[in-house]
Structures are given as C-alpha cells and as structure tokens.
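Students often ask why we bother encoding 3D structure as a string. The short answer is that it lets us treat folding as translation between two languages. Here is a chain of 171 residues written in the first language.
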Amino acid sequence: AEPDRAPSCRIGLMRECWIRALAANRRKIHRRWEALLRLERADTPIADPDNLVHMIDWTLDKVFAELRSHKACHNAALPPTIATLQAKCPCGLNPFFKHFMAGEQALLEALVLAQSEEPSPDPALRDAAVTELYVVTHALARCEVEAFCSLCQHRPRQKVRPAMAGMTEVT
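And here it is in the second language, the structure alphabet:
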C-alpha cells in the first residue's frame, strides 16, 4: 500500500509589513489568545489556562521567527490541521489542542485586521498570507502535540501475554 501523502502547497511569501504588524500587536494577540483559552473548560490540570498562558510568548516567538524565515511552505507538504491531530489522539486530553486552536484564532484575527488596513490588498496575497500563517501554526502544533502524546500515560496499554515460564512478551 502506498503511504498517505499530504497535499503540498506552493505559496508566496507573507508580506513583511503584515509580519511587522503581527509583531507590533503582540500584546493584543497575547491578550486575545489568553481570553480564548479561558473560554474553554480545562479537561486536565495541565490544560488549565493559568498553566497554558505561560506558553503563549514562546509560541509567538516561534511563529514570528518561522514567518520571518520565509521557509514555511515552498513546495512543502501541508502539515495536518489541529483538528486532524486531535482526531488522531488516543485519549483526547492533550492540552496543546486548546492552546494552538486559541492561538490560531488570535493570530488569524490580527492578520486579517492588519490586511484590512491596506487600501486594496491583492486577494491572492491575502490568501497566501493566511495559508502561510496556518502552515506555520499547524507545523508547530504538530511538533508539540506529537511530543506530548508520545509521553502520554493515557494511551491504550499494550497487551502482555506470557511467553515462557517467568518471562513476558509484549505484543
């Protein structure tokens, strides 16, 4: 069987003025992100917004650095969406889902506002910038979600069956 292949993307670079506008509105993005986090009920203590807010600045640093590098997705495979990652999570308790979903919305709102301040931005450039923002946030979310899931203690346990006297074999 052929492995699943993610769709690829080829987009233009996000305009530098929009990246600067996002960075200039960092405090507003942070406040909005935190407000969105607090709308959701925490499933676990680690998913409590009081814990997750400490990750916002680190995440913004990563997103802005990736946008500035302009290497987000030139003929690259599109990373899975946050909803796709969530659907694949065996326990559904990964706190990064809420963190990245709230962040994605806060960043998207800020980008749309920055784009609306231009008299008549090219629709193709607007769309490409939104796509690039999604690609960057989804790629970062994938790394963090998968890292956390690899440590999860709520995964389905592997079956253990006796092999020989005094020894066990994991299947």
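Translate back mentally: Residues 1-11 have pLDDT under 50 and may be disordered. Keep this in mind for the problem set.
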